[in-house]
Amino acid sequence: MSNIPDDLHYTEEHEYVKSTGGDGVVIVGITDYAQGELGDVVYVDLPDVGSTVGQMDVFGTIEAVKAVTELFSPLAGEVVEINPDLDSNPNLVNQDPYGDGWMIKLRMQNPDDLGQLLTADDYRQHIGE
Amino acid sequence: MQTPLPHTDTEQFISRHVGPRPDDIQSMLETLGYDSLDSLVDAVVPQSIRLDRPLELPTARTERDVLEALDALAACNQVFKSYLGLGYSDCITPPVIQRNLLENPGWYTAYTPYQAEIAQGRLEALLNFQTMVSDLTGLAVANASLLDEGTAAAEAMTMTLGLVKHADEPTFLVASDCHPQTIAVVETRATVRGVRVVVADPHQFEFAPGVIGALIQYPTTEGQIDDYGSICEKAHAAEALVTVATDLLALTILAPPGEFGADIAVGNSQRFGVPMGYGGPHAGFFATRDEYKRKIPGRVIGISKDRSGNPALRMSLQTREQHIRRDKATSNICTAQVLLAVIAGMYAVYHGPEGLTRIARRVHALTVTLAEALRRLGHHVVHDSYFDTICVAVDPAQVPKVIDAAVQSRMNLRVISSGRIGIALDETTSVTDIEDIAACFSLGQELPITMLQLAAETRDETAIPYDLERQGAILSHRAFHRYHSETEMMRYLKKLESRDLSLTSAMIPLGSCTMKLNAAVEMMPITWRQFGGLHPFAPREQAEGYRMLFTELEQHLAEITGLPHISLQPNAGAQGEFAGLLVIRAFHDSRGDAGRTVCLIPKSAHGTNPASAVMAGMKVIQVATDEQGNVDLGDVRAKTAEHKDALAALMITYPSTHGVFEADIRDICEAVHENGGQVYLDGANLNAQVGLCRPGDYGADVCHINLHKTFAIPHGGGGPGMGPICAADHLAPFLPDHPIVQLGHEQSCGTISAAPWGSPSILPISWAYIALTGSEGQTTATKAAILNANYVVKRLESEYSLLYSGENGLIGHECIIDTRPFKQTSGIDAEDIAKRLMDYGFHAPTVSFPVIGTLMVEPTESESKEELDRFCDAMLAIREEIREIEDGQADREDNLLKNAPHTLAVIAADTWDRPYPRERAAFPTAATRDYKCWPTVGRIDGAFGDRNLVCCIPMSAYTDEPIPVGA
């Protein structure tokens, strides 16, 4: 069984959204289930800080040894920070997807859109767990 | 004529080519429940598409007769001394390399090194090649070869397009003094991607907004050495990238492109020991800066580690490639030129830096002497700086006289323009040769001095600009210093060969790859001078033997496919796909039907299909497959109708990538045609069709043929391949053409490869295979391939579940073993089985294509029943090993499969703490005790290698210490 924290929001494409508390900035990464399916992550391609993304736009790619998948932005907004450690340590995504393995921080365009995302229960059902 | 003498086996080559003996065929048919091969084939191949007559091919000939016929063809080629240059130089293949590598099935019958643990020899040889390219170009990351210089330059353009931010209509500058064939290949690739190519003088380049990059040639096609540092600066200031097409021998004494600012370097490594072969095959090379390593096209060998922590080589960063990233891949390239890259790398290993530099300095000295002689004869040598090629200004009225004189002396000089002649010298050129050349230019005058005296006079002269002299040592790595005696070289080649599993050890049952026999007799002509010694742009009257061979081969391929017009230009399967799609585009455009850009591709297609479609400027739309793995006819009808105004083509593989003859194929083709599209047939699986059905008969408009699968060209450990295309009448005007050797296709789609007929020197292999087998033999081979595949299914079906079969529960020429259920029951996946097969002495089937988590087996007709049984016994024994895990007798993690493969070092180690006996790990069957190919490294850590890319020999390898991993 994968770790699916109750206090996060999710997408069907296996990204999660975690609030940072205030100022409309959220943390985006991929779920424990997704990292397990991918296997050893070897590279994460992230956008430039300052770029803007629309909801469900591709914001990057993640590569394992034999798979590559696109990363979809759960929400529209501006990328205000990217995880600088993933470049040298992409396996943080495997080791701690919800912690040190986070990917981008996003200033939400419409904080209300959070409500459209999946809850932990929805996501569990989506992946059949 | 009836012979009064008994037949000998050598008179019936087909019985040598097909594995099962007549008795075996009977018993295998009994196992399958059929009374004859024909009744089996009737049950497999739908009647609706069967060819109802024998193929019209010549009667089979004996090996001896075919060699004589090839000898007669070869004798019709005339090998003149070639001073044409243009990226092809005569050279000397060191005999130790010719005999132990190029003519050695231990090297040429191997497959691409996906199963790295049994391919460490080739991988080391390719690492040498990459290190050599990286060192000589001065760029950190090199790949393991591309198809030729022209396509390498085109790949550089595509990579530039992906890296540089650009608006809608980007511009790519190409220096007008690049080789003409390179310019043509780049233009063809650029146009369909919406890139505007501007051909201009590099020093007048304006890096205006919208320019993404530039391609320059160093030294130029006329031989001039120019300083491109300022051009690189201007380009970089405009955020454009610079690609330098260059020459490896020149770079041994010239400043490397990476030093003066190049971002990418490309070229042809042919002159490092590979015969010109009338155009190929040779290994193109490609190097770039470290920062662009994730965008590089083609295969890249990298150093990782195995589970014991020992250094181990593997193909790195595969997520760039078409088999994973499909339409978003960095390139469509699949098969490269491994055998030729290995030769070029070994040429550098054998000569070492001193030897290479000596060769370069000698060629240069002869060029300087020749230039001086021509000046003294009153001619103007146009460029002052050059390496081995000079451009001579000659009164236009005199040009024909000079050229005639050269032809009289059996020499080819290059007419660059009406008043300019090019002369390119090479490793084979002697003082006598330059005397002969000078004599052609003397036009009656006597040179007042002997060439030897002149050589002594010019001894200390150089035509290389001081600033562009190479500084510092080249190739300091130990690999380039250890093997300079023939004994050492021979042993090094043998050592590496012994680390690899090739067809000399065991069957390689790779689905979709057709690893059939590459018979010795078929291989013999490839090193004959009359086939190898011709320059691709030699006058056509000197290549009469090749012309006859091309014509006959084309006729045979036309008869076999039912598509009458052939282009031999595409030099790999993926190139054929690209070419075929361009032909389709050109056809639509010619009818004013320009909006047709949708390419339908089934979900099960090979990754090259979507990658090629994107390269051809098409939009990929996926077609569903049904539960039986067949292309969903309903979905084809729906999607062709939905896109009827934009439909360009459907790309389809037949029999399907699942190995099934789909009964609906005619209807599928009809649906495409009804909606204005063309059918592109991927010929990867042609081996199941030859003599039974023909693409042109059931609806294909154009198809490519992998001569390296169906027609016996060996895989070379990952190339060469050949992917000629066969087209219907209405597509004939659009076939590829060539800027130097016109082929007469008036509305041509462009130029696909650097050489007009791709890789001619390996075409005698396919020609010989057809001559040896004839109509009946070709069809027998197909039937035997179907028999062998169905026999494997029968032997395995009680223990493994098989995915997909046709209407009678039979398959075509390959089958898919579904290993996915084991993940749940035992934690075992397809990869574990693949690695355990190595312990049994086998190469794995194709892993995870076309269905993730499965194994695809294609035994081909050439494997005997005994070998098939040995393979099936191994698979069944592995099933028992899995069952032990399922039953709890074996540990889920610490077991025979998860720990596979087992190396000798592990087996012989003083400590053994595994829960199973050593003997079972090492010798699981009696056959393995008799003989097996041992893996030399344990299971390789792929993630480590991808996270820490090292694609050149590390500096630590200067010493005898083992290469440290993880430093």
Keywords:
heterodimer, A: 129 residues, alpha+beta, six-stranded antiparallel β-sheet, three-stranded antiparallel β-sheet, 3 helices, 33% strand, globular, B: 967 residues, alpha/beta, seven-stranded mixed β-sheet, 33 helices, 37% helix, disordered C terminus
**Low-confidence parts of chain B:** 958-967
Strand order of the largest sheet of chain A: 1-2-3-9-8-5
Helix content of chain A: 10-25%
If you average the pLDDT of chain A, what whole number results? 93
- Estimated share of beta-strand residues of chain B: 5-15%
- Profile the largest sheet of chain B: 7 strands, mixed
Q: Which blocks of ≥5 consecutive residues of chain A have pLDDT under 50? A: none
Give helix % range of chain B: 25-40%
The computed structural class of chain A is: alpha+beta
Spatial extent as radius of gyration of chain A: 13 Å
Shape of chain B: globular
Helical stretch count of chain A?
3
Number of DSSP E strands of chain B: 26
Oligomer: heterodimer
Let me know the number of strands of chain A: 9
**What is the number of helical segments of chain B per DSSP (H or I, 4+ residues)?**
33
Distance between the termini of chain B: 73 Å
Whole-number average pLDDT of chain B? 95
